[in-house]
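To illustrate the input format used throughout this study, we show a single complete record. The first block contains the structure-token representation of the backbone; no residue identities are included at this stage. The design step must infer an amino acid for every position from geometry alone.
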């Protein structure tokens, strides 16, 4: 079957950074679904895994952790899906990725595709929706039923993939006042269209801009871009006993002592944790995606596609990686069909 993979970990401008390959079609066992891939989207995790290093793979390594497609076959222990079901999911970082014609995924981290979306629109949602949902509702423990209505959240990186769905969850479900960061007119416009009440420039003095907008402090901070740069501002802006959650790994030590006098909480969110460790609650991601699909079909949430780059092939996937590395993408980058 066709796939996009790599043997060497190279800069994205190298023609062999990602290549078109032929690999064997896998077969489902246990609770696995064999999914015929119709569309994928690309995330920062893809280029971070692909980043240059000395390792050489003996067989093509396939990346890609966002997909939508049709169940082709199921393992003997599957109970949630059957052949022919349209699905969407993010997969597991410990297994081969979805940049291939067929892909294996555990049913417990899969949801039925929203009926109102095509496959490309659906492929834009899983990884970012799971990340934003878990960060806001599981880590910071904001109520998805609106019990915290009126509280404020600062979303750093509002026009990115996670920010694009995070704004919607915070506004539509939690009923929070949303302050999102954006540095360009087009990204600010995008964030406002998704529901942001206020925009601040993440290249400027964030606490000063918050005060100018009427926020001496905020109840929650979601860091979806550059933890090293933005944590000090988040620590300054967070209210006493508030909470900060980041999804971006740090390169330098994080000065969590800045939070001591405020008794403020600091959380990590990594959406692959459940599948990576096989946690007993893995099925919560199936439930989460099921709820996201329901909300999309009800009109409460919208897809976050920023640009469709065309067919799934090495050239187009390389282009997506490059756009993400350069920080030029608004919303999600999707590809559809081999």
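Output of the design step:
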């Amino acid at each position: 079957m066709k796939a996009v993979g790599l043997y060497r970990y190279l800069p994205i401008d190298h023609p062999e950074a990602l290549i078109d390959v032929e690999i064997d079609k896998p077969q489902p066992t246990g609770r696995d679904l064999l999914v015929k891939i119709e569309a994928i989207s690309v995330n920062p995790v893809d280029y971070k895994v692909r980043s240059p290093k000395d390792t050489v793979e003996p067989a093509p390594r396939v990346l890609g952790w966002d997909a939508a497609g049709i169940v082709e076959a199921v393992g003997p222990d599957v109970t949630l899906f059957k052949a022919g079901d349209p699905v969407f999911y993010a997969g597991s970082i410990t297994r081969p990725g979805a940049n291939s014609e067929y892909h294996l995924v555990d049913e417990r981290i899969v949801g039925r595709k929203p009926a109102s979306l095509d496959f490309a629109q659906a492929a834009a949602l899983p990884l970012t929706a799971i990340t934003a949902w878990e960060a806001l509702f599981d880590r910071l423990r904001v109520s998805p039923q609106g019990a915290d209505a009126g509280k404020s959240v600062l979303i750093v990186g509002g026009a990115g993939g996670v920010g694009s769905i995070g704004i919607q969850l915070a506004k539509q479900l939690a009923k929070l006042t949303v302050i999102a960061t954006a540095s360009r007119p087009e990204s600010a416009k995008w964030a406002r269209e998704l529901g942001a009440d206020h925009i601040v420039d993440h290249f400027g003095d964030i606490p000063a801009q918050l005060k100018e907008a009427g926020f001496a402090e905020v109840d929650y901070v979601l860091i979806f871009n550059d933890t090293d740069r933005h944590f000090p501002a988040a620590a300054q802006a967070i209210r006493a006993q508030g909470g900060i959650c980041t999804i971006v790994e740090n390169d330098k030590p994080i000065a969590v002592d800045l939070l001591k006098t405020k008794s403020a909480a600091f959380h990590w969110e990594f959406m692959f944790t459940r599948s990576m460790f096989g946690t007993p609650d893995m099925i919560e991601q199936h439930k989460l995606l099921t709820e996201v699909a329901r909300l999309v079909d009800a009109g409460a949430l919208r897809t976050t596609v920023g640009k469709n780059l065309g067919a799934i092939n090495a050239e187009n996937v390389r282009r997506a990686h490059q756009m993400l590395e350069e920080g030029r993408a608004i919303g999600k980058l999707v590809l559809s069909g081999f």
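Structural context for interpreting the output: The chain has a mean pLDDT of 97. The domain at 129-268 is CATH 3.40.50.720 (Rossmann fold).
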